[in-house]
Amino acid sequence: MAYEYRIKDQHGLYFITSTVHQWVDVFTRKDYIDILLDSLRFC
After folding, report:
1. Taking CA 1 as the corner, what is the angle to CA 35 and CA 43, rounded to the nearest 5 degrees?
2. How far apart are CA 5 and CA 27, in angstroms?
3. 3-state DSSP: the chain helix, strand, coil percent, rounded to 5?
4. What's the rounded Cα separation, in Å, for the pair 39 and 37?
5. How far apart are alpha carbons 43 and 41 in whole angstroms?
6. Which residue has the higher pLDDT, 3 or 19?
7. How far apart (Å, rounded) are the C-alpha atoms in residues 33 and 38?
8. Which of 2, 19, 32, 40 could lock onto 26 through a cystine, CB 3.0 to 4.6 A?
9. Taking the chain, what is the end-to-end CA distance rounded to the nearest angstrom?
10. CA angle 29-22-34, nearest 5°?
11. How far apart are CA 37 and CA 43, in angstroms?
12. What CA–CA distance (Å, rounded) separates 36 from 30?
């Protein structure tokens, strides 16, 4: 289930937690690592 959150303080610090679909180990394949890092850089 997804929730939508709005950032009210643009200068605040936020803690983000997430889970991976079916507990896939995203750090075992370079393709997964690249996707994850690109996503974090974009955000």
Report:
1. 35
2. 27
3. 35, 0, 65
4. 5
5. 5
6. 19
7. 8
8. 32
9. 21
10. 25
11. 10
12. 10
Structure tokens at 12: 């605040």
Answer whether 29's CB lies under 8 Å from 37's CB.
no
Residue type at position 19 = T
Residues in the chain: 43
Q: Tell me the C-alpha distance between 11 and 36, whole Å.
A: 24
* Per-residue pLDDT tens over the stretch 6-41: 778 888 888 878 788 888 787 888 998 898 889 888
Q: What does the alpha-carbon distance between residue 26 and residue 36 come to, in Å, rounded to a whole number?
A: 8
**DSSP secondary-structure letter at 16?**
-
At position 25, the amino acid (one-letter code) is D
